[in-house]
What we know:
Elements: E1 4-6, H1 14-24, E2 29-33, E3 36-40, H2 45-60, E4 68-72, E5 75-77, E6 85-86, E7 90-94, E8 101-103, E9 106-107, E10 112-118, H3 123-136, E11 141-146, E12 151-159, E13 162-169, E14 174-176, E15 186-188, H4 189-195
Parallel strand pairs: 5-9, 10-11
Antiparallel strand pairs: 1-3, 2-3, 4-7, 5-6, 7-10, 8-9, 11-12, 12-13, 14-15
Amino acid sequence: MSAAAVERPHGRPLIAEADRIMERFPGYRVEIIGDQIIVSPPPDGPHADVLTDFMAPFIAAGLHGSESRLVQGVGLWLPTGAEDYAIPVLSLIDADYRDHHIENNCYDPVCIRMVLEVTSRNYRTDLHTKVNAYAEAKVPVYVIVDRKHQRLHVLTEPAGSEYANHRVHAPGETVALPDSLGAKVTVDVEQIIRAGQN
Length: 198
């Protein structure tokens, strides 16, 4: 899946243009980050496989229950622009997230514990653009499954438009995610990377 940026149409709000694109291309993920519309086609099978494998230890740890929920494709309102929002492929979110609805099917980042992105052909968006956006939104943990470079990135401690802690893990490692998620969760990097291969 590759993403493409769309220039702001003269005189039209970006959200109106994003909505028009979503109507024209059902199933595509449309986000506004840094006052640019980013359009990504539907994920391929290995992308979805990574998502399922990644969710399993969270569910086993009880993180999809009464205190927190694992949700796919839910919008996160961003402080990076007046109309900015992102749609992480997976979020670990407080169970009361419905109380934090802002607009345009997006929620206040205050209820987000972690977001996950799985890279596709346009991996730079996940590895750069979204790092800045999620850090500015103060998302505590950002995990990236980098299928191109076969790495797992775990970013913590948002500070301004960066994360103070960015660890890169290779296949063969088992990664313990931060306890701040609400339970002990470990991820087998090789299993996750293998699931994402074509």
